[in-house]
Design goal:
6 helices, alpha+beta, three-stranded antiparallel β-sheet, three-stranded mixed β-sheet, about 220 residues, globular
Length: about 220
């Protein structure tokens, strides 16, 4: 009984998600930093490039810290491979979901991406400083163009983990998975860049590791 209770409290503490209201949506206020699925099953932590590559090659869910340094988790959260994001056990805690492409588009419309730009890949929302409204005012390389964090999203430039377990772009760019895969098995993701006040929408084969934001259901 006591062990069960302690386990329950531990899981509850790990799944306490701070939130920010943007328009009609509730978003997680920080990048996801959870090491287990909704049912409590642990997700493997990759502590080396070799472990990351092995998880990718075997199709196994995994997460890591930027440069495998746990101190970076305090800033950027965890980086998940696609197998963790898409696992049917659910990466998001109860009452939350990994943001879909449509969730991001709703956010972008609210912040001012014009309808004629909503399905584009790059240069989206510059006229209304949409990228700047999402970016934290600190933590980015100079020039951090447009950054006001007006939305409260507080996006940080966490960069990415490559498919070989190498890291790049911290300080310059931030990348976020969506849970949306198209018929060609390419996944939509978002990225922000320090030098432009836009939000980019791109789809690629799901390799490597990116950060995650959640939307409340």
């Amino acid at each position: 009984m006591l062990a069960t209770l302690i386990l329950g409290v531990t899981v509850l503490a790990q799944t306490n998600i701070s939130e920010v209201k943007i328009g009609e949506q509730l978003w997680s206020a920080k990048n996801l930093d959870i090491g287990h699925f909704r049912n409590g099953d642990a997700i493997t932590e990759a502590k080396t490039a070799e472990e990351w590559q092995a998880a990718e090659a075997n199709g196994e869910p995994a997460w890591c810290y930027y440069e495998y340094n746990s101190q970076n988790g305090n800033t950027y959260g965890k980086y998940y491979n696609w197998y963790a994001v898409s696992d049917p056990r659910g990466l998001a805690p109860e009452a939350w979901r990994v943001a879909t492409d449509e969730d991001w588009q709703q956010l972008e419309r609210f912040l001012g991406v014009p309808e004629e730009e909503i399905h584009l890949s790059t240069g989206r929302g510059e006229s209304n400083n949409v990228g700047g409204k999402l970016k934290s005012k600190t933590g980015w390389d100079n020039p951090n163009r447009g950054a006001t964090n007006e939305s409260g999203f507080a996006a940080l430039p966490g960069g990415m983990c490559g498919p070989k377990g190498d890291f790049s772009q911290a300080g310059r760019m931030g990348f976020w998975w969506t849970s949306s895969m198209d018929e060609t098995e390419r996944v939509w993701f978002r990225f922000l860049y320090h030098g432009f006040p836009v939000i980019n929408r791109v789809k690629e084969k799901p390799t490597g590791g990116l950060t995650v934001r959640l939307v409340k259901e």
